[in-house]
Structure formats: structure tokens, C-alpha cells
Amino acid sequence: MRFIAVGILVSASWLSAHAVEKPLDSRQVLATMEKVADWQLAHLDPVSSIQIYREETTEPRSWQQAAFYAGLTELAQRSSSPRFRNAVLDHGRKANWRLGERKYHADDHAIGMSYLWAATNGAGADAIAPLRRRFDEILATPPRVGLDAESETSCWDRWCWCDALFMAPPVWIGLSVATGDAHYANYAHAEFKATKDYLYDPQEHLFYRDSRFFKQRDSEGRKLFWSRGNGWVFAGLVRVLSQLPANDPSRPMYETLFREMAAKLRTLQKTDGYWSPSLLATKGAPPESSGTGFFVYGLAWGIDVGLLDRAMYEPAVQKGWRALTNAVHADGRLGFVQQVSDRPEHVTRDDTQFYGVGAFLLAGAAILDLSQ
Predict the structure, then answer these.
(1) What does each C-alpha distance from 214 to 132, 349, 369 come to in angstroms?
(2) In the chain, what are the domain boundaries?
(3) How many other C-beta atoms can be found within 10 angstroms of the C-beta atom of residue 217?
(4) Do residues 134 and 103 touch, judged by C-beta distance below 8 A?
(5) How far apart are CA 84 and CA 364, in angstroms?
(6) Is the Cβ–Cβ distance between 50 and 339 less than 8 Å?
(7) What's the pLDDT band for 19 if we cut at 50, 70, 90?
(8) The whole model's pTM is what?
(9) What count of other Cβ atoms lies within 10 Å of the Cβ of residue 153?
């Protein structure tokens, strides 16, 4: 009997370790998205845990809020409640559909994602008129600087940091889709390729944040690949590919990059479902929900559209979403969001930010589509 009992215990342990996750409940996914979005809409003034770039965060056209409203558009398309659609439209109208003040800076273009959505969801062409004027100005006088962040003081006028690949290319390509003018997309393709060729590590299949990090290493000699920075790129790829026709000659570049990054990211997910702030430094790393949100978004979307194998990648999506929901406080506040930075840093359960919520909503939306 003792032998049989031990055998039963071993078998139970084995089954537990190798159990297939139950499918995610789409109703619960949507309910959690709405809860997190409602909390953020009730806290448009930054909470006390936001210590740095606080004034910038309060700016309605900032990249921080732009990422949130990009996620909110996806929730608005999937929720039966009009409150999320109305929030996007009200936000744009209060800003008079203007971009940020810096002419060339990608961060000040990001809010255009929600304006493009608003234009076809009740606001009309007025929502993208300022956006088109700005981009026409840039096409008339494009920046003539290099991408070296150490020697080019104006490199930020181009996309010389990896975050920019989320902030700007989807807006440029979206404007081409909205207007039928290919000049905007052509500019985006050329600039995206230049940034990829400069910042992408073809051996690691990850992006350096900018050129200042090429030679930096952590205390154990590992390269520094920032989770959220690569999350920006991965999510940006989704938002670009979602808008490109199947026969677009630029698709192969984006699809190849997307698959390469996905394959690498799958190997770096921690056992708790999160990705670590420094992607190669997984041991003892804290939870971090902004990078994780963007990775779950990209992987779920890739499965849904047939770019990624479902059997291989869906376990990472399910584990990642469960990790993200574990970061949601009882009142709907999303925690474990690393604060504004350009590199891996400390993060706590109480840390939150607009862009973390945006990533969460994007991830949830892709999971809802995958479950249909």
C-alpha cells in the first residue's frame, strides 16, 4: 500500500507540473479590461506613486497617455458599453486633435493613433486634419541627422530609440490608409528599416534601447535588453502589420522581424508568467507588467492571424495573461508597471502608469480575438 501511495503522489505531482492550462474565460477577460480601464479613467491625474515625469504624464497629448488611449480604442471596439468610445472622443476633442508640440519627435506623434481611430468612429475627418498638416511639413523638410544617440544631439528628430517604433510608424501608416496617400507609409517603411538595421541585434533577436547601450553590460556581463523597450517594438510591429495589405512589398521585413522576436521572447518568459525588466537577467527578477503586456499582445495577435504556431505560443499567452491579472489590485489599479525610464529599473506592486494600462488593454483585446 505504501508503494502504491507513493506512486499516486508522484503521478499527481507529475500531472500538476504538466497540466494543460484551462482556456481563458473571454467574459472574465473583458470584465477585467473594463475594470482596469475604469480605474485609469477615474485617475487621469497621476497617482502619488508616479514620481518622475509627473508633469509630462499629465499632458493629454503625451506618449504616456497616447499608449493608454491606443489600448482604450481596442476595448471600445469590444465592449458593449459606449463609455470607452466616448472617453476616446472626448479626449481628442478637448485636445482639438492636436499632436504634441515637438515637430519631429515620435513621442509627440503617438496620440495620433487614437485620432485615426476616432476619425472613423464618430469624429470625422477633422480628427486627423492637424495630423496630416504636421506630417506634410515633415515630408517637406525631413530631418537630416544620424541615429547615434551619443554624437547626434538631434537624433531624436528621427527614430533613434527603439520606443519610437511604437510611437510613430503606426500613425504614419495609418494616415496612408486613411487618405490613400502612400507617401506617409513610404516614409515610415524607410525610417523603420533604418532604425531596425541600427538597433537590432541579429544574434540575440532583440533591440538595444539606443546606441548608448551597445557596449553596456550588467554585473554578470550580460547585454542590456530592456523589456519595455522591446515591448514597444513588438507591439509596434503588430500595429504596423495590422494595417498593411497582404501583398504589400514591405510586409516581409516586418513579418520576419516579428517571428524572430517572438521566438526569442518565448524562451525568456519567467515561470511566473512575466518577462523581467532586463530580458536576459531572469533570475530573481521582479514582476513587470508593461513589457509583459506588450509581449502578450504581440504573441496572441500573431497566433490569431496565423504568423505564430498556436500550440507553441498559446501557453506563453495564457501564462502571461494570468500574470498580468495578478498585478491588478482589487480596485482595478494595475501594478508592477516600471516607471518612465530608458533602461531596466526597480519596480513595485504599487507602481502604475498610463502606458502599462494601455499594454494591458491591448493584450486583453488580442486574447478576446484569439478566443473567438
Answers:
(1) 35, 30, 37
(2) 35-99+201-371
(3) 11
(4) yes
(5) 15
(6) yes
(7) very low
(8) 0.94
(9) 10
Q: What is the mean pLDDT of the chain?
A: 94
Rounded Cα gap, residues 353 and 47, in angstroms: 9
Q: What is the rounded CA–CA span in Å between residue 349 and residue 351?
A: 6
Q: Give catalytic residue positions.
A: 163
Closest CA to 60 of 102, 35, 96, 30: 96
Element (H, E) at 207: strand 206-207
CATH class of 35-99+201-371: mainly alpha
Task: Quote the CA–CA distance of 353 and 327 in Å, as a whole number.
Answer: 13
**Residue 10 confidence (pLDDT) above 80:** no
Q: What is the C-alpha separation between 276 and 289, in angstroms, rounded?
A: 9
pLDDT digits (tens, 9 = 90+) for 188-240: 999 999 999 999 999 999 999 999 999 999 999 999 999 999 999 999 999 99
Element at 133 (helix H, strand E)? helix 129-140
> CA 343 to CA 140: how far, in whole Å?
34
Residue 67 contacts by C-beta under 8 Å, 6 or more apart in sequence?
110, 166, 354, 355, 358, 359
Place of cell 499594454: 359
Instruction: Tell the residue number behind the cell numbers 489599479, with chain if given.
Output: 333
